[in-house]
């Protein structure tokens, strides 16, 4: 979908007008392309007395030389009280202007549940406000994240998450807090030999998910309703996967899906619940059919399908389950009580299911997209569409591939320590938490 304002703002005359009037200035975001180096520039790691400094420096070839850096990584897990926060200033202030465009900032902290001392808890919570502010200050497409790592977690458990956050794959993810558990992580690797299912795969975000998972080596089962059969077949052929037409809200649909997967593959390594619908009306004007349809597709069916597949033993130990929430489920949205309730429900479902399946090494996470350029958002009224695009730190909408790359990170074999997280893919939207 064409974003005419962004095209204008990047033109010669447009740049001058945007700067003069203080209008939103959408930066050019660097996105990962197959064959690109995962981390495209030097990484500065600090402080030198941080508990993980030496290991992180070895992993990311820390550069101490003056000049430009692609990324700044700061280990704050050793900060035990508010006075220790001065180390943030001492590290970031001298290099705040030394990041390349589309740079990366990552701060490591401790999970608040692992901190008992009030002073240490205050300092560790302070990291959240610091990181979110950096994401809004540094500009030029820079992203900033807080990774809370369990004290017992080794650096290998962090690798998948840091690789994602420092790469161009996280172009539209910023201002997020991610927790990494104390779970042994397998060697990195891709998804070769894995079977992945993406629901709602016929178009838009679902099609992008299928493409990225296939790029990373997975055999992708692309599922959508029969009415989308032609588009579904095109996507499945493109990714050399398979198309499966099924309405997951139908009677016995979950059992039919389980039978299909058992017969064709014997297991399902990655389950991505992308299928979703909107039926917008204010609550006073909403008929029961609109309410029921949205809840069935967006929340009830994913929960039922997951439970049936688990009960059938089709999701093996080490499997990956990914839900799709929305910033509407975090911030709410006028005319979307049904949609916001369903997406907030996905968040609650992820938080409850993750610890239940942790003993089997099955991770459960969710993405929460903000304004993503799709056929659905193209139909929004002009002013609502423009507000969605501009009300974030990137001053532009995201692309379906931004959501897909986040899902692929969750699905990666090396992401065993990442579970129970809900990560917004929203360019650090001004709405929500």
UniProtKB/TrEMBL annotation:
Q: Which PROSITE patterns match?
A: ADH_SHORT
Under Pfam families, the record lists:
adh_short_C2 (PF13561)
Q: Name one GO molecular function term.
A: oxidoreductase activity, acting on the CH-OH group of donors, NAD or NADP as acceptor
Would you say which domain of life the source belongs to? Bacteria
* Domain Ketoreductase: from-to ranges: 194-370
Which family does the entry's similarity section mention? Belongs to the short-chain dehydrogenases/reductases (SDR) family.
NCBIfam families per UniProt? PRK08261.1
- Please give the name of this protein: 3-oxoacyl-ACP reductase
What is the native source organism of this protein? Answer: Catellatospora bangladeshensis
Provide the taxonomic classification. Bacteria, Bacillati, Actinomycetota, Actinomycetes, Micromonosporales
Primary gene name: fabG_5
């Amino acid at each position: 979908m064409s974003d005419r304002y962004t095209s204008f703002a990047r033109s010669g005359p447009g740049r001058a007008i945007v700067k003069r009037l203080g209008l939103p200035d959408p930066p050019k975001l660097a996105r990962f392309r197959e064959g690109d180096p995962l981390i495209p520039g030097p990484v500065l790691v600090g402080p030198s007395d941080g508990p993980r400094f030496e290991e992180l420096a070895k992993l990311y070839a820390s550069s101490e030389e003056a000049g430009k850096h692609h990324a700044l990584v700061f280990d704050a897990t050793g900060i035990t009280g508010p006075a220790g926060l001065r180390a943030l200033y001492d590290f970031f202030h001298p290099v705040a202007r030394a990041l390349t465009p589309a740079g990366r900032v990552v701060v490591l902290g401790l999970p608040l549940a692992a901190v008992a001392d009030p002073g240490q808890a205050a300092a560790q919570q302070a990291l959240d406000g610091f990181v979110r502010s950096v994401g809004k200050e540094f500009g030029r497409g820079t992203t900033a994240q807080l990774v809370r790592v369990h004290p017992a977690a080794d650096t290998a458990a962090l690798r998948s998450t840091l690789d994602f956050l420092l790469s161009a794959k996280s172009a539209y993810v910023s201002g997020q807090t991610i927790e990494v558990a104390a779970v042994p992580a397998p060697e990195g690797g891709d998804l070769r030999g894995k079977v992945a299912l993406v629901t709602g795969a016929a178009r838009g975000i679902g099609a992008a998910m299928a493409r990225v998972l296939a790029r990373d080596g997975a055999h992708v089962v692309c599922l959508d309703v029969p009415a989308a059969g032609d588009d579904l077949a095109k996507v499945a052929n493109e990714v050399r996967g398979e198309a499966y037409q099924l309405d997951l809200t139908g009677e016995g649909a979950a059992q039919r899906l389980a039978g299909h997967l058992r017969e064709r593959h014997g297991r399902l390594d990655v389950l991505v619940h992308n299928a979703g619908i909107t039926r917008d009306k204010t609550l006073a004007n909403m008929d029961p059919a609109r309410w029921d349809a949205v809840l069935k597709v967006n929340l009830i069916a994913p929960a039922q399908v997951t439970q049936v597949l688990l009960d059938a033993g089709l999701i093996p130990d080490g499997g990956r389950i990914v839900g799709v929430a929305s910033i509407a489920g975090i911030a709410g949205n006028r005319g979307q009580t049904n949609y916001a309730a369903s997406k907030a429900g996905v968040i609650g479902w992820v938080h409850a299911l993750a610890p239940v399946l942790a003993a089997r090494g099955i991770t459960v996470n969710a993405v929460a997209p903000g304004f993503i350029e799709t056929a659905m958002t193209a139909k929004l009224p002009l002013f609502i569409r423009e507000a969605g695009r501009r009300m974030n730190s990137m001053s532009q909408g995201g692309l379906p591939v931004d959501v897909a790359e986040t899902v692929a990170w969750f699905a990666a074999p090396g992401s065993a320590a990442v579970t129970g997280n809900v990560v917004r893919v929203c360019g650090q939207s001004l709405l929500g938490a």
